[in-house]
Design brief:
With 87 residues, this protein is mostly helical. The protein has a domain of 56 residues. 53% of the residues lie in helices and 0% in strands. It is built from 5 helices and no strands. Helix 1 packs across helix 2. It starts with 8 loop residues before the first helix and ends in a 5-residue tail after the last helix.
């Protein structure tokens, strides 16, 4: 299927900037966004279960750009650190 979209200049500029940030062509990035917005096959079929391939794809998408995120010490994930204002 071929789709033709009419984008206003602001949306086109934003799409181009985001695509460049991800090292992708705007068309490929737009396709990735559309695919990401569609429900997964597991959701669409009502099984509520992902295949192993879908699970690995999901993990890869979640970790995309992780190298730019700050590294936190494990002490930041203690139970007390989550509830320190309730002690």
């Amino acid at each position: 299927m071929t789709l033709q979209l009419e984008l206003n200049p602001e949306t086109e500029a934003q799409l181009a900037a985001e695509a460049a940030q991800h090292g992708m062509a705007p068309e490929a990035y737009a396709l990735k966004l559309i695919k990401g917005a569609l429900p997964s096959q597991a959701y669409a079929t009502g099984t509520g279960r992902l295949t192993v391939e879908e699970f690995h794809k999901m993990l890869a998408e979640i970790s995309e750009g992780a190298e730019n995120r700050p590294s936190l010490p494990t002490s930041a994930f203690s139970r007390e650190s989550f509830y320190e204002d309730r002690l």
